[in-house]
TrEMBL record:
A family per Pfam: Polysacc_deac_1
GO molecular function terms listed in the Swiss-Prot or TrEMBL record: hydrolase activity, acting on carbon-nitrogen (but not peptide) bonds
Superkingdom of origin: Archaea
NodB homology domain segment(s): 21-263
InterPro entries: Glyco_hydro/deAcase_b/a-brl, NODB_dom
Protein name: NodB homology domain-containing protein
An annotated GO BP: carbohydrate metabolic process
Length: 272
């Protein structure tokens, strides 16, 4: 297999809505956990495709049956914070660290082992995040966009000074499996009208057409390329998205040089 496709899910459930200030929005999180996760797991059972789920500790503790089903049916569960609060919003390294630890503990309680991979919740690293990833022995991250179709090694935060060129930070030993925002279902397909953001509702076939086109380009131009999709159960598990996703899986399965892999497998292959 020359190329890989990673199907990844940010299973935020209610944690993604806690800062919205509108209690009725939390029903979307319940919908994702109780309606969409079972649909998606059934889809993966039918197709035999492995996937990676980034699950906040808040979700694990709030919806233990749904989180347990993901693990029991053979999919990897990785770190996505505990609270899903943006990392730069913590007022200190210790506060961010406490959230890290609580998220790790929730995953250990569920799976019996610590997570090895990470995706930032709500976008962005703080100045402390890379240090925390190293402290807790994370092997890989799937947050960055320094490349689009090939893994790379995560770097320390770069230096930005007024009237001076940008200076990149030193390379770490943590692999990044990139996931550009144009492969995020939420940013294209989930209708949200609330301060401070407005996201318009797109058309599922158009989005999947773009993803197929990018996959074709990768197969033609990138050696051992990796296409990572960032999906959310609240979006990916509803009609007609789930049907479009199944058709996409079938198309990829028919390719001789491309197959599905979880992110841990891709990161380990890149490191070797």
């Amino acid at each position: 297999m020359s190329h890989s496709v990673c199907l990844t899910y940010d299973f935020d459930a209610v944690s993604g809505w806690t800062s919205a200030g509108m209690p009725e929005y939390r029903s979307w999180g319940v919908y994702g956990a109780e309606t969409c996760v079972p649909r998606l797991l059934d889809l993966h059972d039918r197709t035999g495709v492995s996937s990676t789920w980034f699950v906040p500790g808040h979700t694990i503790e709030s919806f233990p049956e749904a989180a347990g089903a993901i693990h029991d049916r053979g999919h990897e569960i990785q770190h996505h914070g505990w609270s899903h609060d943006p990392l730069p919003s913590f007022d200190s390294r210790d506060a961010e660290r406490r959230d890290f630890v609580r998220g790790i503990e929730a995953i250990e309680e569920l799976t019996g082992e610590p997570p090895t991979g990470f995706r930032n919740p709500a976008g962005g690293f703080s100045e402390h995040t890379v240090d925390l990833l190293r402290e807790f022995g994370f092997e890989w991250d799937s947050s960055g966009t320094e490349r689009d179709l090939r893994p790379y090694y995560l770097r320390e935060p770069g230096t930005v000074e007024h009237d001076r060129p940008y200076r990149r930070g030193d390379r770490t030993g943590i692999v990044t499996v990139p996931v550009p925002w144009h492969r995020d279902d939420w940013l294209q397909l989930f209708p949200v009208a609330s301060d401070p953001q407005f996201v318009s509702y797109g058309h599922e076939p158009d989005v999947f057409h773009r993803w197929r086109t990018e996959l074709e380009w990768m197969r033609d131009h990138v050696e051992e390329g990796v296409l990572t999709l960032l999906l959310h159960p609240q979006c990916a598990g509803r009609a007609p998205f789930v049907a479009e996703l199944e058709a996409f899986i079938e198309d990829v399965t028919d390719l001789d040089d491309t197959g599905f892999a979880d992110v841990s497998t891709v990161a380990a292959s890149f490191r070797s």
